[in-house]
Specification:
single chain; alpha+beta; two-stranded antiparallel sheet; about 100 residues; two-stranded antiparallel ribbon
Length: about 100
């Protein structure tokens, strides 16, 4: 197996003051906290949503997880109509996806 040649990494930094950037729905929407370091935590799901919104709205790139489809089967039908493959979708390439 050959090593990966074109590997990239992203450093995503954002600052939030007097806000709750990622409330915990299972805990009355309280901020997710690391009480040992007294810092707020942001889940990977929230970060992926930020990036998907940026790709779709600012860069006008196609993404798989979109609010234009009610579920994955509906989105798959849309892609087939547009003659696009899952490999062309930036979020599938960045975050991975399992297709059956």
């Amino acid at each position: 197996m050959e090593p990966i040649q074109n590997n990239n990494e992203i450093l995503f930094i954002y600052d939030a003051k007097l806000s709750n950037p990622n409330g915990d729905m299972d805990n009355e929407n309280k901020p997710r906290m690391d009480y040992d370091t007294n810092t707020n935590l942001v889940s990977d799901v929230r970060l992926k949503r930020y990036l998907r919104d940026y790709f779709e709205q600012q860069l006008k790139m196609d993404i798989f997880i979109t609010d234009k489809a009610k579920d994955a089967k509906d989105r798959d039908k849309q892609l087939k109509k547009e003659d696009k493959s899952h490999a062309s979708l930036i979020d599938s390439r960045m975050f991975g996806a399992v297709f059956a």
